Structure formats: C-alpha cells, structure tokens
Amino acid sequence: MRSFHRTLEFLKPYRGIVVGAVFLTLLVTAFQIVPPRLFQYAIDSGISPALAAQKSAELASTPAAKEAAQAVWENWRDERGPGIILLIAGILVAVVAFR
Length: 99
What we know:
This protein is mainly α. It has 3 helices and no strands. The longest helix is centred in the middle third of the chain and has 45 residues, at 15-59. It is rod-shaped and about 80 Å long.
C-alpha cells in the first residue's frame, strides 16, 4: 500500500496525462470489441437470411414452394441484403482506420 501512495505522489504533476492515457486506453479497448460485433451483425442480418432463402429455394419440393422461396431470395437480393453488407463494410473500414 505504501508503494501505491508513493506512485500516486510521483504521478501528481502528470495527473492530466495519466487521466488522458487511461481514457484513451479504455477507448481503444472499446474499439477492439466493435469489429467482431459488426461481423456478427453482418452475418446474422445480411448473410444468413440470404443463405436460408437460397437453400429453401433449392430444396423446395413443390413448384409453388420453390417459387415462393425464389421470391424471398430475390426480395432480399434486390432490397436489403447487399446494402446492409456494404454499410457494415464501410463502418468496419472506418472503425479500423480510427483505431
């Protein structure tokens, strides 16, 4: 405990720098968590629905089911999926550049 107090006394003139260093360390740690979460979101909301729709279109047993699954796949492809993946890729590049 004595050495801890001596260390604090030594750091007293550098208080602002120490607080800044601790804040930046916490910020860098937080940015280490962001890329895996972005990958998770891209897979869960962008890639998995596309694969599920494509697989169900391939495995559909009746022509009506195959047509419905193909419509879901085309809807994903035309509206939502690629846009989400491109947005997440852009955010990922920005996070890595900032980090």
